[in-house]
Design goal:
CATH topology of the largest domain: Aminopeptidase
Number of strands: 13
Distance between the termini: 25 Å
Largest sheet: 13 strands, mixed
Strand order of the largest sheet: 1-2-3-4-5-6-13-7-12-11-10-9-8
CATH architecture of the largest domain: 3-Layer(aba) Sandwich
Helix content: 25-40%
């Protein structure tokens, strides 16, 4: 366990200094792990618990939980944040639990300044967090952080999370736009990276490392040391004229590392400007191929844009919530004390 004082109230942050059972009790007492969320996770709870116990007990740079007990042991000042390694240099920071929402994001950002110093070179080059745009103080704090860092080193990207309880409900249609889906190989990764940059922005694309470790082979070797794995498949949709119109990023990783199951999701990235009739065949054909690539049941969550979400909601998918993804690069002011 490593202790580190963030200078906030004199109490130290402890890294991985809490067991899974105690963390759950804290989550429940603060209302973070509420009954409805527990019920949604019941089907994967055994795997979730195994994943968390394994990662919390490992010293490898794959997962981290920082918690702070508060000054003078005040239980009402307890706060925590966790992060998991989603690609070789990109970490997903999540599960901010703090009695003061305004302070929670500030504490998160202070931790992200400190933690790279504990890691091997290159193990943390970017970070990202998903938040709900209507989530009051937390959403406001993330937007202020993005404004402080600036667009050269950070971005805010709106997305929509959907669920497909039964992949068979997604029927690939070829009506309207004509095209085909193919699997991405190493030679195509630069094109995919440029496409994602054009649709979701350069910061988003850089952080995902589509060129340096497109299929997460390098990262998977590190997860395999503790008996886990993390993979990524890439699919593209091209029109009959060869135009790249959509990309599906299929994530498969340790089950339950994120309580919204974002570790096993399909990112549907569709070119802007398409009509509904053009968008439907792109999205449904990519999804049909993505489910096959994911082995069926794991990647049930879909993250995409509002127009594609609306199209899929009419074809069996259910919209869960709106999200924004805040992404920052550690080459920017975040690593030089801007906070």
């Amino acid at each position: 366990m490593i202790e580190w004082s963030d200078g906030w109230d004199g109490s130290p942050f402890r890294r991985n200094g809490i067991c899974f059972d105690e963390l759950l009790r804290k989550y429940e007492s603060y209302g973070f792990l509420y009954r409805a969320k527990q019920e949604r996770l019941s089907a994967v709870w055994a795997e979730l618990e195994k994943t968390w116990r394994t990662l919390l007990g490992s010293d490898l740079p794959l997962f981290v939980c920082f918690h702070q007990d508060g000054n003078s042991g005040d239980v009402n000042q307890w706060c925590s944040v966790t992060a998991w390694r989603s690609s070789l240099g990109n970490w997903c920071w999540q599960h901010l639990v703090c009695p003061d929402d305004d302070q929670s994001v500030q504490r998160l950002l202070r931790v992200t300044q400190y933690y790279p110093e504990c890691l091997p070179p290159g193990a943390m080059q970017a970070g990202h967090s998903w938040f709900q745009p209507n989530d009051g103080a937390i959403a406001r704090a993330f937007r202020e952080a993005a404004e402080t860092i600036g667009p050269r080193f950070s971005s805010l990207v709106p997305r929509v999370l959907l669920d497909s309880p039964d992949p068979s409900t997604i029927v690939a249609t070829k009506k309207g736009l004509r095209g085909d889906v193919s699997t991405v190989d190493q030679e195509m990764t630069s094109e995919v990276s440029r496409f994602v940059a054009n649709v979701l922005g350069k910061i988003y694309s850089i952080s995902e490392e589509f060129v340096s470790d497109p299929f997460l082979d390098g990262l998977c070797k590190e997860y395999e040391v503790v008996g886990l794995s993390r993979h990524r498949s890439l699919l593209v949709y091209r029109s009959v004229h060869g135009d790249l119109l959509g990309v599906a990023v299929v994530h498969t990783g340790p089950i339950g590392v994120n309580f919204s199951q974002l570790e096993n999701r399909i990112d549907l990235i569709v070119r802007g400007g398409l009509s509904l009739d053009e968008r439907v065949p792109v999205a449904t054909q990519l999804l049909a191929s993505a489910y096959e690539a994911a082995g069926g049941s794991l990647a049930r969550r879909i993250m995409t844009d509002q127009d594609t979400a609306a199209a899929l909601s009419m074809r069996g998918c259910s919209i869960i919530r709106d999200y924004q993804r805040f992404t920052w690069l550690h080459a920017g002011p975040a690593s030089s004390g801007v906070y």
